[in-house]
Write a structure and sequence with these properties.
The complex is a heterodimer of chains A (about 575) and B (about 375). By secondary structure, chain A is mainly alpha-helical. Helix content of chain A is about 60%, strand content about 5%. The chains are: A mainly alpha (about 575), B alpha+beta (about 375). Bound molecules: FE2/S2 (inorganic) cluster (FES). Chain B: Keywords: 2Fe-2S, Cell membrane, Disulfide bond, Electron transport, Iron, Iron-sulfur, Membrane, Metal-binding, Oxidoreductase, Respiratory chain, Transmembrane, Transmembrane helix, Transport.
């Protein structure tokens, strides 16, 4: 095992081979004489991207969006977003002769009478699930590792907007085929809009062009789905990527990785090949899903009829959590006074809650920054255990989300598990409040004990499970130092800084009032950081080292490792 | 980082809290590890093998693309669909060939990158996101110079009127959206349905009137007002009242869906003794036959599931449950108010008709509902 203690700080690796001007060179010359891009390209062609599996989540989102664009363009060639009723004459026998909308008719046409049409529809729908799901998990990754911190707050905000738009895009797309299930969703959307105080009724009229269902909703949703939202998403993705390139990707602490550098593979060739190859993997996986797994069989639901509904009506999963809240809120929250009605059971759950959560997510980096008082830039990621309160917060959010999602499937759970739907609902009404609190607390404590364990290992090595008996009969377990990469994760992180109230009287003797906001900030700061364990300092490691020198049996002192630890303790 | 903005702030202009300076040097992390050679770097045989693997994946992808074309033209879809293991053969093979072909390219390229491209990690220096002090100053100067020359600071009249004009410029765009909605957006439109006094209830699919004698105790029917169910020629008939008078002209087909949504009803017969008598709904039933709006008062799903013994009606969307024996009251779930009930009557032959429109709006709640 050999060690380099040098922190690399320039682009190195293999030397560029020089040779006679190549064809590529000639083409690049031609382009540069017209576009002058060499200045930009010189910085970016060999830009360094760090490698970690969790950095792939965002890529899945990006590539599934590309799949959505490609399959979506194909679908527009055949889809007809019209609510005009015609008699169905296509291949699907059970519906032949019934009057259905052009939208539903063309969706059936795509599914049954266009070769590859069903595949495209299914790929499109699967890719939509993948898009939203991967954005969600990518966001959790960014949250849990602190990648949203300065200077990346704006990119976080863009990400939250992308997730929101993606969800809306999913909902509008889900509504387009005008089948019974999607129509039920649109019907509910009408109720959602109407629940908005003061302006809801107008909102519904404006959205539907008439009383529900009107004749305009499908064409309107269509143009929103294929032009408006995708345009916004594309623009935001471009901004997201540009900022990513400008800030350079975050990286995990590790040997040679510091706040001042970025270590990884150059854009050309390795990163470009891996990322580009990954596009084909996402594309291929969606194609396989589209070929093998039926999704949204609209022909089984039949055309939309406002007087019909299928039992177990469910929105797509990403709309499931507001739908779940909608199910468990008791109806008595609806109030009427002074001649008006406040439809709170609907408004609170599907309009206000999502708005609040999105707002909270958008503001989170700034709240976090206010609590920590930290003005530095951060490029090294944090392990979730090293930010126990924040990880606990995510656990609370996830618990809330999952419970709400369960609530959204309460009828299905009741049937599958043979439970009473009322009891499930009563249980969830309590759990939705208590669950997140419990999850926060457990996770926070858990993280702290993981921290304790990590610090222990960083100072005294890990337990090998080998018990040794010393000549004088004492038993001890052999400890070995952690591998460099692991050690770096533990000792390489920044220590938390607790805020302090400035003295109540400043140096000129003028009294400085501590306002409430400051006190709140301080209390939150303590709550957030005070229980955390701090990484071992150089002195602590030194001390632990000497401690082991004194007690031979405690740890294996393989000769080579002495040098290692010296290098490690001294840093460079 | 040497940049000032990157140091922990000591004192925060706005608040009174400060971050103390770090106490000690914490830079105890080990340096960049040495590069470890891969088999493909040192063994020409392994290198050749990897090269062939990658090429094989690319060739396989080409084969898949060709097979896609073959599958596209050889499998029937539509009425005489070919099937394979219970799948539609066309969809299955198109998906498999497209998917495997794409995967092969992806796996091939990544394999190439992992096995054959240089795997030396390199490092690059970061720079603070902020521009240099110098750049900032220059920009600020340029900005100030530009603003000065425009005189925007010295001429508040122009500045304020310009701001006003820009604000007003948005007005036409917003107002032009008004006609997204219909001319008449009065909430009172939501209060009325197609129903009126003397209108017969018909079965929602067949369009035939319902006789009190047709219903046994426990039976449930879906109904619509006569005039909203197309006859066998597909035309909407004009509704005729009990005295043979035409109640209103036949409806334009265009409006059918809108009216149908609000007018759908359920008709249910229970034993008259089960009905909880409500003083102002004394004889709204006909021998225990009651009639309610079918549209859930929560967000408007059609209600479907009837529990015979309890006369409870469950909405499949969010499980609001209404008691049809007791004026449609909400007994469970998120709905905020009862199902609107219809005052029923029967003509001499026993056919059921409405004694008037619902006395409250059907469907989801809205602000003006009162
Ligand atoms: S629409 Fe009936 S419960 Fe929600």
């Amino acid at each position: 095992m050999s060690t380099t203690s040098k922190v690399a700080d320039t682009n190195g690796g293999t030397a560029a081979r020089s040779g006679k001007p190549s064809k590529v060179g000639a083409a690049a010359n031609w382009a540069d004489e017209r576009l002058g891009l060499a200045g930009l390209a010189k910085k970016n062609l060999r830009k360094v991207f760090p490698d970690h599996w969790s950095f792939m989540l965002g890529e899945i989102a990006l590539w599934s969006f590309v799949v959505l664009l490609v399959t979506g363009v194909f679908l527009t060639f055949w889809f007809n977003p019209s609510m005009t009723e015609i008699e169905y004459q296509g291949s699907y026998a059970p519906l032949r002769g019934s009057y259905i909308s052009e939208a539903f008719n063309s969706s059936l046409h795509i599914s049954f009478d266009v070769r590859g049409g069903l595949l495209l529809r299914q790929m499109h729908h699967w890719a939509a699930h993948l898009f939203i799901g991967s954005m969600l998990i990518h966001m959790m990754r960014v949250f849990l590792t602190g990648a949203y911190r300065k200077p990346r707050e704006i990119n976080w905000v863009i990400g939250v907007l992308l997730l929101t738009l993606g969800t809306l895009e999913g909902f509008t797309g889900y509504s387009l085929p005008d089948d019974l299930l999607s129509g039920t969703g649109v019907r509910a959307a009408d109720g959602f809009v109407k629940s908005i105080p003061v302006i809801g009724t107008y909102g519904s009229f404006l959205l539907f062009g008439d009383e529900f269902p009107g004749h305009s909703i499908i064409p309107r949703l269509y143009i929103i789905h294929v032009l408006l939202i995708p345009g916004l998403i594309l623009g935001l993705i471009a901004a997201h990527m540009l900022l990513l390139v400008y800030h350079k990707h975050t990286q995990w602490p590790g040997p040679g990785r510091t706040e001042q550098n970025v270590v990884g593979f150059p854009m050309l060739p390795v990163y470009a090949a891996k990322a580009g190859g990954f596009f084909f993997i996402v594309f291929g996986a969606t194609a396989l899903m589209g070929g093998l797994m039926t999704i949204n069989p609209i022909w089984m639901y039949g055309p939309y009829d406002p007087t019909k509904v299928t039992a177990g009506s469910q929105p797509d999963w990403y709309m499931g959590w507001p739908d779940g809240l909608l199910r468990i809120i008791p109806g008595w929250t609806e109030v009427s006074f002074w001649g008006v009605t406040l439809a709170l059971p609907v408004f609170l759950t599907v309009i206000l809650m999502p708005t609040l959560i999105i707002t909270f997510l958008i503001l989170y980096p700034f709240i976090d920054n206010w609590i920590s008082g930290d003005k530095r830039e951060h490029h090294l990621l944090q392990r979730p255990r090293d930010t126990p309160a924040r990880t606990g917060l995510m656990a609370a959010l996830v618990t809330f989300y999952v419970l709400a999602l369960f609530a959204g499937g309460n009828d299905i759970i009741a049937i599958r598990l043979d439970l009473s739907i009322n009891q499930i609902t009563y249980f969830l009404r309590a759990a939705i409040f208590l669950g997140p609190i419990l999850a926060f607390w457990i996770t926070k404590r858990w993280c702290i004990s993981l921290q304790r364990h990590a610090k222990e290992q960083a100072l005294h090595g890990y337990e090998t499970g080998i018990i040794e008996r010393s000549p004088d009969g004492a038993y001890s377990e052999r400890h070995l130092p952690l591998p460099d990469a692991k050690q770096a994760l533990i000792v390489g992180r920044e220590r938390d800084q607790l805020l302090e109230l400035e003295p109540a009287v400043d140096k000129n003797g003028v009294e400085r009032p501590h306002n409430r906001k400051e006190r709140l900030r301080l209390a939150l700061n303590r709550f957030w950081f005070a229980d955390n364990l701090q990484p071992p300092t150089a002195a602590e490691i030194e001390a632990a080292h000497h401690h082991h020198d004194g007690h031979d049996g405690h740890e294996l002192e393989a000769g080579a490792h002495d040098d290692d630890r010296d290098a490690l303790v001294k840093g460079h | 980082m040497s940049d000032q903005s990157n140091l922990p702030a000591s004192g925060d202009g706005a608040g009174h809290s400060r971050v103390p300076e770090p106490l000690e040097d914490q830079d105890v992390a080990p340096g960049l590890p040495a590069h470890v050679w891969r088999p493909t770097d040192v063994d020409p045989k392994a290198e050749k093998r990897a090269e062939r693997q990658v090429a094989a994946l690319f060739i396989f992808s080409m084969v898949c693309a060709v097979l896609f074309v073959v599958a596209y033209f050889s499998f029937e879809i539509g009425r005489e669909i070919d099937t394979f293991l219970g799948f539609g053969a066309s969809n299955l093979f198109l998906g498999l060939t497209l998917g495997l072909g794409m995967l092969a390219i992806g796996v091939g390229v990544i394999q190439w990158a992992r096995k054959l491209m240089s795997d030396v990690e390199i490092a690059e220096l970061r720079h603070p996101a902020a521009s240099s002090e110098e750049d900032r100053e220059t920009t600020l100067k340029a900005l100030t110079a530009g603003l000065d020359e425009s005189g925007i600071g010295r001429r508040p009249l122009i500045r304020n009127t310009l701001l006003g004009a820009l604000a007003f410029a948005g007005v036409p765009l917003v107002v032009a959206l008004r006609d997204l909605g219909p001319r008449n957006m009065s909430a009172s439109r939501l209060e009325k349905t197609f129903w009126m006094e003397g209108m017969y209830i018909v079965r929602d699919v067949l369009g035939t009137r319902i006789n009190r004698a047709d219903l046994e105790i426990g039976d449930l029917l879906n109904g619509e007002p006569e005039g909203l169910v197309p006859n066998s020629e597909g035309h909407l008939p004009a509704p005729i009242g009990p005295n043979g008078q035409e109640l209103r002209p036949a409806l334009d087909h265009e409006q059918l869906l809108i009216e149908k949504v609000k007018s759908a009803v359920i008709v249910l017969r229970m034993s008259p003794g089960d009905i909880v008598r409500n003083p102002d709904r004394e004889n709204w039933d006909v021998d225990g036959i009651v009639c309610y709006s079918k549209i859930c008062t929560h967000v408007g799903c059609p209600i479907a599931l009837n529990e015979q013994q309890t006369h409870h009606l469950l909405c499949p969307c969010h499980q609001s449950t209404f008691d049809l024996a007791d004026s449609g009251k909400v007994v469970f779930g998120p709905a905020g108010h009862s199902l609107p009930q219809m005052h029923l009557a029967a003509d001499d032959e026993g056919y059921l008709y409405a004694m008037g429109d619902f006395d409250e709006p059907v469907g989801p709640s809205y602000w003006e509902r009162g």
